[in-house]
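Box 4.2: Ligand-aware structure prediction
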Amino acid sequence: MSKVPYKIYLSEKELPTKWYNIQADMPTPLKPPLNPQTKKPVSPEDLAAIFPKDLILQEVSQEQYIDIPEEVQELYKSFRPSPLCRAYRLEKALGTPARIYYKYEGVTPSGSHKLNTAIPQVYYNKIVGIKRLSTETGAGQWGSALSIATKMFGLACTVYMVKVSYQQKPYRKSLMETFGATVIPSPSQLTEAGKRILAENPDSLGSLGIAISEAVEDAATHADTNYALGSVLNHVILHQTIIGQEAKLQMEKIDEYPDIIIGCCGGGSNFAGITFPFLKDKIKDGKKLRAIAVEPKACPTLTKGQFAYDFGDTAQMTPITMMYTLGHGFVPPGIHAGGLRYHGDSPLVSQLYKDGLIEARAVHQTEIFESAVLFAQTEGILPAPESSHAIKGAIDEALKCKQSGEAKTILFCLSGHGHFDLSAYEAYHNKQLEDFEYSDEMLEEGLKCIPTIE
Ligand SMILES: *Cc1c(COP(=O)(O)O)cnc(C)c1O
């Protein structure tokens, strides 16, 4: 038998021209998002203050496939497809009969999957005449992606960066500034939401929930400015299905189909991006397939959170959505996988988890760095701490195969590289990383702020 190549690519002509919308195929439709003031279903007009029309339409669309605009396809071509790689050396190091594949999104100009949605989001804003986008960033990957995409289309960009990341990752800030963005540590004195938080706690290190409040307020109070979110929302997840659709085509080329697909899960976009096009086969054709979301034990949204209507941000400005949540007031411990420190999760991922179509598990940060180092030493790629949650998940499944002797096919999303995360690696090497267990008391405290909906 001829060996599967290390990397499987697609030609430009084979690239997907549509995104896949799982809303068309879900067994349980989403509950409508609610207006934060009236607690009635959100109207398109409510959203028009901060989002362009096309993205609002995508948010609620029930069409199974949505065309990728040609201008977006052209920009995708400059860095896509991302390679599908066979992890031969990792397999060998583990002594597993499993075949491990990873889809490597670290090859995008921003170093993660986030550019896949930044480009179309900026495009849809540009065509309606918006001049500036505001956003939040946790670890800095989303801010980097949006800075690059706004520069591609000639828009300005303001990034509210969670203060702890701003301090830990000065190079991310320099990267965003290189692409012309204005970067503001959050909480800041520039918004009412930020001022309120600082009045209560002048030393606040910030959180994604707080930074979202600031960015939304900025957009809502400036007519030429819209807001862009890097995860969670349905349209973001839609754009990320480019990952899974490519992976499916790449696997077809080598006559493979995954038994297990794994992604790390913060807001859920890379996990959804790689799994949803395959989950379609599970929902529609009864394909046997396990999809596993891996999250940090310090922010265990799916594995310990509650499925409830909750706000997406700390200041209660965003719509109330039905999702797994730890409570919008939750400020997670300052773990190094900053991109996974969000109190909520994508409503789409949440509903599929509720319906038992996907699985979730939580891991400690010291375990994920152990997996990250093994991966780096075998595959030669330095993974982002976020992505290393998926690596850990894949390694665990591969080791189960070693026990049982089954040669399963495992696919995971390597969502980004870790070149800006070396201070976290250093802390790991120096044995300075702490593991945080999210206690039942913390959970109880966090859930207290969830709103009651009649
Ligand atoms: C932002 C980010 C994540 C987490 O976000 P999701 O929406 O859950 O994908 C994971 N990995 C990397 C590299 C990121 O930048």
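In the box above, the bound molecule is pyridoxal-5'-phosphate. Residues 112, 114, 141-142, 231, 264-271, 339-340, 384, 386-387, 415-416 surround pyridoxal-5'-phosphate (CB under 6 Å).
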